Amino acid sequence: MTDQERVIKDVIAFTERKEEERMLDGVKSYINRIKRQRDNLKIELKKYKSDEKIDELNKEIEDLKANSLFIFSEDEKKEEIKFKKEHRDCNSNIYYYFKGTEVGVAAGLKCSKCGLITDITDYSRW
Ligand SMILES: [Zn+2]
After folding, report:
1. Residues flanking ion ligand 1, Cβ below 5 Å
2. Which of 68, 70, 73, 104 could form a disulfide with 122 if both were Cys (CB 3.0 to 4.6 A apart)?
3. What phi and psi, each to the nearest 5 degrees, are found at residue 116?
4. Cα of 88 to ligand 1 centre, how many Å?
5. CA nearest 112: which of 84, 73, 75, 79?
6. 126 C-alpha to center of ligand 1: Å?
7. Whole-angstrom distance between the N-terminal and C-terminal Cα of the chain?
8. What is the sign of the dihedral through the CA atoms of 22, 27, 30 and 36?
9. Distance (Å) from CA 120 to ligand 1 centroid
């Protein structure tokens, strides 16, 4: 093998190696692109699922509202519990009253024993 032949062989080997590396890089970047797409799809899917869940919960809330006479706010619930505690010794029935007005529904409680009436309306909801 002459020097010239050896050089040509080396150049060809080098070129082939470079070509292989380029192909490999191409495959690597293709895989990376697919992985990124997969990760993005995962995020999308998660978002979609949680949106669906929120819709479901909103529907449940709407159903509850439609099928309940009245839904107390957190503050009204606290007032209700307080009232019940205060009249535990009365050992009687608690009457609930609701008064519809133009701006909202007022809620009140009455102890059937001592007759105390308490307005528990959460006016912040009006
Ligand atoms: Zn009472």
Report:
1. 87, 90, 111, 113-114
2. 73
3. -70, 130
4. 7
5. 84
6. 28
7. 98
8. negative
9. 15
Place of tokens 């949106």: 51
Q: How far is the CA of 92 from the centre of ligand 1 (A)?
A: 7
Can you read off the two tokens belonging to residue 41?
Answer: 């799809």
Residue 31 CA from chain centroid, whole number: 32
| Residue 115 in tokens | 């007759």
Query: Pick from 71, 63, 74, 62: which is nearest to 105 by CA?
Result: 71
Residue range 54-69, pLDDT digits in tens: 888 988 888 887 777 7
Residue 110 phi/psi, 5° resolution?
Answer: -135, 135
Tens digits of residue pLDDT in 66-117: 777 778 889 999 999 999 999 999 999 999 999 988 888 899 999 999 999 9
pLDDT in tens, 43-54: 988 888 888 888
Query: Which pLDDT score is estimated for 121?
Result: 95
Cα 117 to middle of ligand 1, angstroms: 9
